[in-house]
Amino acid sequence: MISEISRRRVLRGMMGGTAVSVGLPFLDCFLNTNGTALADGTAFPVGYVSWFQGLGFSPGFWEPKTLGPGFEFGHHLRTLAPLRDKINIFSGMKVYLDGHAAGAHNIGPQCITQGGIADTSLPSIDQIIADAIGTRTRFRSLEVSCEGSQDSFSRRSASAINPSEPSPLALYSRIFGPDFKDPNAADFTPDPHVMARASVLSMVQEQRASFVKSLGASDKARLEEYFTSLRELEKRLALDLQKPAPLASCTIPKKFDEEAKPGEVIDDALINHNLHAQLLAHAFACGQTQVASVNFGGSSSDLRRPGMQQTFHMYTHEEQIDPVLGYQVNVEWFSNKTAESLLGFAKAFEGIREGDGNLLDRVLIMYSTDGGFARTHSTENIPLMTIGKANGRLKTGIHVSAKGDSVSRFGLTVMQALGVPIGTWGTESNRTSKTFTEVIA
After folding, report:
1. Range of lowest pLDDT (136-140, 224-228, 408-412, 430-434)
2. Is 243 helix (H, G, I), strand (E, B) or coil?
3. Listed residue (129, 122, 137) closest to 180, CA to CA
4. What is the pTM of this model?
5. Secondary structure (DSSP) of 168-234
6. What does the alpha-carbon distance between residue 331 and residue 320 come to, in Å, rounded to a whole number?
7. How far apart are CA 329 and CA 309, in angstroms?
8. Inter-axis angle of helices 107-114 and 125-133, nearest 10
9. Bridge partners, residue 90, by sequence
10. In terms of DSSP H, where are the helices of 253-387?
11. Are residues 287 and 244 in contact, defined by beta-carbon separation less than 8 angstroms?
12. Beta partners for 158?
């Protein structure tokens, strides 16, 4: 009978004398009558990914020609056409410098992810979102890079940067290694080592109050930042002591034996990016995290073709604009590879079925880059996009233009769509309380 089937049900058997279990997908009997939530009424959790690409696209060749729904992609973004109905494109926005030095490739990412350029101590947008949706998962957030570095735009503060994981093999071990708790397993036994660590942390916390009294203001502030991290660790340990809720769409990806050599050769970066995409998609499906950041190539990308010395970054400054085509041909080649990678990343999420939809339907991927024209370090008309429906909180398939507005308006819209209780965001002239209401469902 249907009433006897629940999301906790697993298929069990023996293989070589070893007990094995296989989680079931989100079958119709697990869901409500519309296939849009779990049978008990619980909504699928919303997820968020920051996906950053350095050096952007050539101005005039990525923007759609028409506004609103039904737009056609510009020349450089035509690769993304298969996902048009799930993509929003935002054009025309800029970074206000307010008298600060223009810098090179770091100003755009700082304003897009932190709301301004005057205060580097501000948390990044992914961490603000993690405060709202990432506190009940094993990993508050996961950060990866694709070219071998630990560079990251994810930060809790100026001194608390979340380094990116460049190795897919290391990421696999971190997510699905010995500490992974299968949410669909029938049995659960708390790890005694975790219990011991939780106990020790509690003892330390009890001594904090008397110790803080003896410190000066500077040390108190520094210690408070440390204990904020400690409290997050305690929350994670508390979760590790609880049986995870079953997630029938969770499947453990097959462990791979090899990864591409981390480095600046774009073919290797593409291989590692695809592995990262699959691992992050499974991590979301298995409830291990709901927030992630992907750094594809860095803000001043040094990715290059095999056997070539000229890098993407060098081409943007040194290659002449083709007088007939109107853009830099080699730069376009790298831009196309980037667009293909972004499509592949979104497809990895779309490929995991959940209810009558898929994982991408409940996730918002925020694409950003460092500037509007890499050749001149322009911070005008910076390409920005969202992919995914954020659990129905976003209308999609829309091109929005906001010429002259700060990019922080885009970030504020993303945060509100994901349920962050924030009405104003940004600093100085980049501060805004305006969202793009035309894309909010």
Report:
1. 224-228
2. coil
3. 137
4. 0.81
5. HHHHHHHHHSTT---TT-S-----HHHHHHHHHHHHHHHHHHHHHTTS-HHHHHHHHHHHHHHHHHH
6. 10
7. 17
8. 20
9. 384, 400
10. 266-285, 312-318, 329-350
11. yes
12. none
Neighbour tally for 40: CB within 10 Å: 10
DSSP state, residue 151 = -
Q: For helices 168-176 and 266-285, what crossing angle results, to 10°? A: 10
Which tokens go with 427? 């600093």
Query: pLDDT tens-digit profile of 44-71?
Result: 899 999 999 999 999 999 999 999 999 9
3-state secondary structure of 273: helix
Cα–Cα distances in Å, from 73 out to 158, 339, 398?
37, 12, 11
Q: Contact, 147 vs 54, CB < 8 A?
A: no
Q: Rounded distance, CA 127 to CA 114, Å?
A: 10
* Contact partners, residue 437, CB within 8 Å, separation at least 6: none
Q: What pLDDT does residue 36 have?
A: 56
Q: Where in the chain are the domains?
A: 25-183+248-439, 189-242
CB 301 within 8 A of CB 136: no
For domain 25-183+248-439, the CATH class is alpha beta
Task: Look at residues 363, 402, 296 and name the one whose alpha carbon lies nearest to residue 87.
Answer: 363
Q: Write out the E strands in 46-184.
A: 47-53, 68-69, 87-91, 142-145, 155-157, 160-161
What are the structure tokens assigned to 300, written together?
């001043």
Q: What is the distance between the alpha carbons of residues 385 and 400, in angstroms, rounded to a whole number?
A: 10
- What pLDDT does 204 receive? 59
Alpha-carbon distance 355 to 4, whole Å? Answer: 19
Question: 273 φ, ψ to 5°?
Answer: -60, -45
Provide the total of helices (H) and of strands (E) in the chain, helices listed first.
9, 14
Q: Which two tokens stand for residue 62?
A: 């990525």
Residue 267, pLDDT score = 94
Contact 45, 183 (CB under 8 A): no
Q: What letter would DSSP give residue 161?
A: E
Residue 319 DSSP class: S
Beta bridge partners of 149: none
Cα–Cα distance for residue pair 166/263, rounded to 1 Å: 9
| 309-341 CB burial, b ≥16 within 10 A, e <16 | eebbbbbbeebeeeeeeebbebbbebbbbbbeb
CB 30 within 8 A of CB 245: no
Dihedral over alpha carbons 329, 303, 411, 422 (to 10 degrees): 180
